Fold these 2 entries.
Entry 1:
Amino acid sequence: MDRNYEAIFVISSKLSENEIKDITEELKKIIESKNNAKILETLVEPRQFAYPINKETKGTFITYKFQGPPETISNIKGEIKHREEILRTTFVKKE
């Protein structure tokens, strides 16, 4: 049974606008390829951090709302865990 999720990725501010666009598309493909997940909405916005993360004070938040089975989350985490440009990742199950 598919569930609704929200994935938030915090991307380094050291990347150019084109690199952020490429990462946004790459993350979208990763999510869609895992267990036939369906992306419902994508939001990209630059923000100032409340506290430094890896010595950076600002970054780009990429939010995806998607549907998929529970194992989708662990598959996505395994795919992106060694990406240096992704500072933080959060997954939330939506009701």
Note: The chain has one domain: 3-94.
Entry 2:
Amino acid sequence: MSQPEPGILHADLDAFYASVEQRDDPRLRGRPVIVGAGVVLAASYEAKACGVRTAMGGAHARRLCPRAVVVPPRMAEYANASKAVFRIFERTAPVVEGLSIDEAFLDVRRLGRITGAPFDIALRLREEVRAEVRLPITVGVARTKFLAKVASAVAKPDGLLVVPAGGELDFLHPLPVERLWGVGHVTARKLHAAGLSTVGDVARVPEAALVAQLGPAAGRRLHALAHNRDPRRVTSGHRRRSIGSQRALGRSPAAWTDLDAHLVAIADRLARRLRAADRVCRTVVLRLRFADYSRATRSHTLAEATVETREILGTARRLLGASRAMVDARGITLIGVALGNLSDGACVQLSLPLERDRSRSLDVTLDDIRDRFGSGAVVRGVLVGRDPGLSPPLLPD
């Protein structure tokens, strides 16, 4: 029996912020562009070729690429461009799952008799984004969400790659282990130390051995992905109760200024995702992992719901500052932020002054609450005993 045709698209705008700047200012085209001075929010491919990466400190980026043009971010323009692109997504496919302001999954299966094969749909999508929004976009097409995202990453920049049915493992297995979702610097180092450098190497290891080396969750997940087993469906209309992002830092000591730069980038990324989804948050959660593999979680619930980067960042900074002694003593290998108590942007209820004063005394340590009330406790809308909504790291394109 023939295998079903690849029908899941992962569409990802290339170097989004920087591409908008190059689109709007012809003098920047073909030149290295860095968006953001204190911390790099985006870099054009010309700047990436010099080693500049998202979330890097601005001074370091300018040393790597002294010819780069540094421009301030224009969030309103990026939001307008995103909305225009998503309108094209929504008329292209009946089911669109937005991942962030600049990427989405599209399910185009069963559209063959209506609008053509998935390759033709992807080709037309790229042409329409280029013509109507004047931005480059890369599209990966496969039978699973995981592989469609890998395909788009391999095809960047400004490319289109279809992984044919039956050829998934031939495409996937030669790729480096870093292409597997969830493999950051620490996990990659463990895999390389075990002699595993490609996805195929991981696929040939028994699941039990991966579990023993990486732990149950990571071991099972990587074993499944290495065999392209990903049952997730493309879904739309799902309203998440929390969103998050995190960054692995490696084992080297992290300077406090670097931690702050990572926090700025994470807060900006999450605030953009809130605004793109027209949602607001009330709870900011800081997640830390230390060099001894222990973890700590700190949270604060705001008096009023917000979508502002400044307020989210300020709260995260205060939580991190309160944990400074612990960070200095134990070393830090991961920093993450989650935003909880999400609601629609049109449903914001302002609090009274007395409520504002009361909320300032409600900083909560989730680990402490778990110890006192058990794993099912709910504190100001944050469920204790499960990951508070931190999503996989958003990799720079």
Note: The chain has a mean pLDDT of 83.
